[in-house]
Write a structure and sequence with these properties.
The chain has 124 residues and is mainly β. It is built from no helices and eleven strands. A hairpin with a 4-residue loop joins strand 7 and strand 8.
């Protein structure tokens, strides 16, 4: 089992920045990908960014438009999501996820493990 704990959410004005963190524990050696997803009320869960664990190869959703950066600190088993230029449409619950399978890095159904989520609210 892998446990994931997110932190770093909050409320910001449009144009602001936030940095989310996700600490992994447990059988982390089984992780192949880690990712960030988000879900706004009434909408489906959306893949935002993913990274090949210990390979530092990122994948981003088109909707991010270059504003977010995913990174990892392998020594601390932590993945980060730096979010710049935030927009009201970015308002959602953000979830960290991990999986052991390869491929399809932004598909929620591919992920084995999920954190509890951290709320991001962007006001105009």
């Amino acid at each position: 089992q892998v446990q994931l704990v997110e932190s770093g959410g909050g409320s910001v004005q449009a144009g602001g920045s936030l940095r989310l963190s996700c600490a992994a524990s447990g059988y982390t050696r089984t992780i192949n990908y880690m990712a960030w997803f988000r879900q706004a009320p009434g909408k489906e869960r959306e893949g935002v960014a993913a990274i090949l664990w210990r390979g530092a190869l990122p994948t981003y959703a088109d909707s991010i438009e270059g504003r977010f950066t995913i990174s990892e600190d392998n020594a601390k088993n932590t993945v980060f999501l730096q979010m710049n230029g935030l927009k009201p449409d970015d308002t959602a619950m953000y979830y960290c996820a991990a999986k052991s399978r390869s491929g399809w890095p932004l598909i929620a159904g591919e992920y084995n493990y999920w954190g509890q989520g951290t709320q991001v609210t962007v006001s105009s």
